[in-house]
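subagent[fold] <- orchestrator: predict structure for attached chain, return tokens only, no commentary.
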Amino acid sequence: MIDFQSSAWHQIRKWAEDEMAKCRQKNDALGLSPDETSALRGEIRAYKKLLGLQQQVAREVVGLPVD
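subagent[fold] -> orchestrator:
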């Protein structure tokens, strides 16, 4: 189980948020190919999934359906 109160989780969350912001900034740049745009969107999706772990676990604990 992940300790979402630990300093390690907070560091991981901060890193993922920073990386996602970098990807979004790159994605907004002009001149990207469709493949580059798709790759960045995939990275953003992965960071969002990682950042959503805390909510997913909380939903499972109270018995709500997980998306």
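orchestrator: received. Logging for downstream: The two ends are 19 Å apart (CA to CA). Residues 7-27 form the longest helix (21 residues).
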